[in-house]
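Researcher: We plan to redesign the surface later, but first we want a full-length starting point. Tokens attached.
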């Protein structure tokens, strides 16, 4: 839960840093639904190689996060920048992406937590990494939901 005065990014960033470390990844982040357009996700917190892209918005329907949303299960993608044009436009090669859903109460989908590798072809994600993301995802949907309530007096998601 965000502490008084802490931004959502400041609250989420430690989970990204832990995912980066525990999964031996080169980038990690948390993507959440944009309240104004539910087909868009925002990289709310991002660390590592893709850190400079924090705050970027992208289409849920055309992304690894969208696949994760569709299947409601962790997804492993090899070289996803080959399949999603906006990822290729970042100019960053992505060898592997492991994406886990952030599912809240009553099955509500709030976004994803993810890790990626770039230029180190010796790093490969496995079931332990998927378990790590599942562990780190616990409570994140509630944190995001509470942040939304704090911004929206009605407490509703668009």
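Model: Full-length starting sequence:
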């Amino acid at each position: 839960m965000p502490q008084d005065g802490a931004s959502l990014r400041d609250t989420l960033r430690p989970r990204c840093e832990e995912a980066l470390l525990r999964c031996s990844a080169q980038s990690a982040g948390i993507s959440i639904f944009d309240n104004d357009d539910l087909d868009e996700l925002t990289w709310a917190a991002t660390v590592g190689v893709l850190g400079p892209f924090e705050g970027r918005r992208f289409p849920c329907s055309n992304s690894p996060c969208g696949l994760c949303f569709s299947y409601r299960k962790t997804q492993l993608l090899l070289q996803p920048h080959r399949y999603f044009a906006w990822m290729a436009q970042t100019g960053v090669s992505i060898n592997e992406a492991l994406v886990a859903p952030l599912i809240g109460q009553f099955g509500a989908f709030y976004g994803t937590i993810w890790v990626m590798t770039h230029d180190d072809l010796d790093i490969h994600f496995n079931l332990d990494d998927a378990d790590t993301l599942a562990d780190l995802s616990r409570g994140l949907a509630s944190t995001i939901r509470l942040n939304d309530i704090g911004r929206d007096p009605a407490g509703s998601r668009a």
